[in-house]
Specification:
The complex is a heterodimer of chains A (111) and B (119). By secondary structure, chain A is mainly beta. Chain A has no helices and eleven strands. In chain A, strands 2, 4, 5, 6, 9, 10 and 11 form a seven-stranded mixed beta sheet that branches. Chain A has a four-stranded antiparallel beta sheet with strand order 1-3-8-7, with no helix packed on it. In chain A, strand 9 and strand 10 form a beta hairpin. Chain A is globular and about 40 Å long. Chain A starts with a strand and ends with a strand. With 119 residues, chain B is mainly β. Helix content of chain B is 0%, strand content 51%. Chain B contains no helices and eleven strands. In chain B, the strands form two sheets. In chain B, strands 2, 4, 5, 6, 9, 10 and 11 form a seven-stranded mixed beta sheet that branches. Chain B has a four-stranded antiparallel beta sheet with strand order 1-3-8-7, with no helix packed on it. In chain B, strand 9 and strand 10 form a beta hairpin. Chain B starts with a strand and ends with a strand. Classes of the chains: A mainly beta (111), B mainly beta (119).
Chain lengths: 111, 119
């Protein structure tokens, strides 16, 4: 069974920098997993932020960036704003079986 | 403007069927893969299924394989999810999402439709 793991929760101060990670129990996450990142605020649909590791959508704020870090996918928020408080989900693509898996999500608190 | 609007959710008894629809506009529908993703009450996102632009290729999460069928009508710019043999654990908000062209992710999402499986 494929399991994608994220930090359950993180706290960051306004203006600070925080990195969220996304790991797979199948091994190191590479660009072949086409990591995606999503933001979800209470009562709202998810909003796509990053695709294919580090590509931003037209609406993605510049302070969000994606990368690979130590065998994991990573989402870094630089200059965190109060409105960035939300749940963040990663999604990985498993090409061998043409399936996608979400991580359990990270609850980011800005305090 | 890209729009995705889900419908068809509601209360259904265990073992029953339900069909969800996702009406789309603002883009060339048949050029994009489409996905269904669900979220149980208070839980995280779960990928459910995906269909290719021409409808010929599909894939499913193990938890729904054999019970759910994804399809599309490119003439109507509409995506469907036929759900059979529904279980309590299928209770969730179901979102449709557009695939990213040339990659394996999603960009635009609908607002979701709630499916409640209960007797």
């Amino acid at each position: 069974q494929t399991v994608v793991t994220q930090e359950p929760s993180l706290t960051v101060s306004p203006g600070g920098t925080v990195t969220l990670t996304c790991a797979s129990n199948t091994g190191a996450v590479t660009s072949d997993y086409y990591p995606n990142w999503f933001q979800q605020k209470p009562g709202q649909a998810p909003r796509a932020l990053i695709y294919s590791t580090n590509n931003k959508h037209s609406w993605t704020p510049a302070r969000f960036s994606g990368s690979l870090l130590g065998g994991k996918a990573a989402l870094t928020l630089s200059g965190v704003q109060p409105e960035d408080e939300a749940d963040y989900y990663c999604m990985l693509f498993y090409g061998g079986v043409l399936r996608w898996e979400f991580g359990g999500g990270t609850k980011l608190t800005v305090l | 403007e890209v729009q995705l609007v889900e419908s068809g959710g509601g209360l259904v008894q265990p073992g029953g069927p339900l069909r969800l629809s996702c009406a789309t506009s603002g883009f060339t529908f048949n050029s994009y893969w489409m996905h269904w993703v669900r979220q149980g009450p208070g839980k995280g996102l779960v990928w459910v299924s995906r269909v290719s632009g021409d409808g010929r290729s599909t894939s499913y999460a193990e938890s729904v394989k054999g019970r759910f069928t994804i399809s599309r009508d490119n003439a109507k710019n509409t995506l469907y999810l036929q759900m059979n043999s529904l279980r309590d654990e299928d209770t969730a908000v179901y979102y449709c999402a557009r695939g990213v062209r040339g990659s394996y992710g999603t960009d635009y999402w609908g607002q979701g439709t709630l499916v409640t499986v209960s007797s």
